[in-house]
Amino acid sequence: MSPDKRPIAPGSQEPTSTDAFIKGLWRDNPVFVQVLGMCPVLAVSNTAENALAMGLATCFVLFMSNTLVSSLRNFIPKQVRITAFIIIIATFVTITDYAIQAIRVELHKSLGAFISLIVANCLILGRAEAFASKNSIGKSMLDALGMGFGFVFALFCLGAVRELLGNGTLFGLMIFPDSFQEWIVMILPAGGFFTLAIWLLLFNGIKTKKATT
Amino acid sequence: MNGESIWLIFINASLVNNFVLAYFLGICPFLGVSGKMETATKMGGAVTFVMLISSMCAYGIHALLVAINAPFLQLISFIVVIASTVQLVEMFIKKMSPSLFRALGIFLPLITTNCAILGLALFQTNKGYGFGESIVYALGAGAGFTLALVLIAKLREKLEYAEVPKIVKGTALTLLIAGILSLTFMGFAGLGSQ
User: Fold this and answer.
1) Hey, which residues does A174 pair with through a beta bridge?
2) Residue B173: what pLDDT?
3) Domain map (residue ranges) of chain A
4) Alpha carbon of A185: minimum distance to chain B alpha carbons (Å)
5) Where are the domains of chain B?
6) Phi and psi based region of residue A173 (left: phi greater than 0; alpha: psi -120 to 50; beta: remaining)
7) How far is CA A203 from the centre of its chain?
8) Is the CB of residue B188 less than 8 Å away from at least one CB of chain A?
9) Residues 84-143, chain B, touching A (beta carbon < 8 A)
10) Could you read off the pLDDT of B38-66 as tens digits, one per residue?
């Protein structure tokens, strides 16, 4: 994949609003199709709970920053827009960070620095730049929700598989009988790469099948 | 200060806890610019350089924020400083080597959103490293990032000529190689622990 061919800014020509929502969930799924925001996807998807929490936190930040960026789009000078976007995003991430710390300390501990690292999630900056800075508030909100839930969905897919195979549990509940031998590798970093690769294969497979029939 | 020797910090950041393969930081450029050996080394160099500068800045900012008792500003000030550093580096590269500038393309501004750099700033603050230790940590992390990038670039160059099923081509294949690389890097675990 050459740098200039990467789909950084797809879908800025959406016709209807429901379309804007659906495309993020499936057709332009941020993780499986656009391969954006990989770092948190791989790093905190070792259990389903972590994955879900991380996904929701990202979704919240994405929604808030998209809304704010869109409402300020006529006031932000073009030259400093990236900096302005980043400051907006960083503000919401700080809020999320403190909120999670207040609600569940254990969760905050297990997610660690990765909550702060939502700032550096290319998905959020990408949506701010490619969509929210050009579209109305309502559309940007829908876009953020679609992309956000697409992200949550993808993270959950990864987290569930990794927890199930690596630990034999789902949300901490034992699924497999005691005789199940855990695949430790799934919890380890390497497992993250493998699981994501397999999900991508699945998506590619479905796509090629659709294209041929 | 936690008594780690400089050497240990370096080994730790570059091999044992490799930023890309163990912490999953900087995956976007890792997947994006690892297609060619040449761009991979240059990208590694650029990232290491930005890491070094932002690590020094982060140390200063942290000290300042502790002094004025405003830790909630940490994230915002880190990211702003990193963004401006990247901008400076970008202007510098554009002036010095336009061909490199074109080769790096969109990924140069994207260093801003490279989690490896922000992650480095956050980790060194969490670990309470001093100024010297921070610099070594940044160098180690940069070396580790470059190493991972170069390794994967080389592997991908070889695989260009291999016949793989069509659906595996592209990102999925890179991820599979990365997984195997990550497994091999686990062999370094234990290295450097006292």
Assistant:
1) A169
2) 85
3) 36-212
4) 9
5) 6-186
6) beta
7) 16
8) no
9) 84, 104-107, 109-110, 112-115, 117-119, 122-123, 126
10) 878 878 888 888 888 889 888 988 888 98
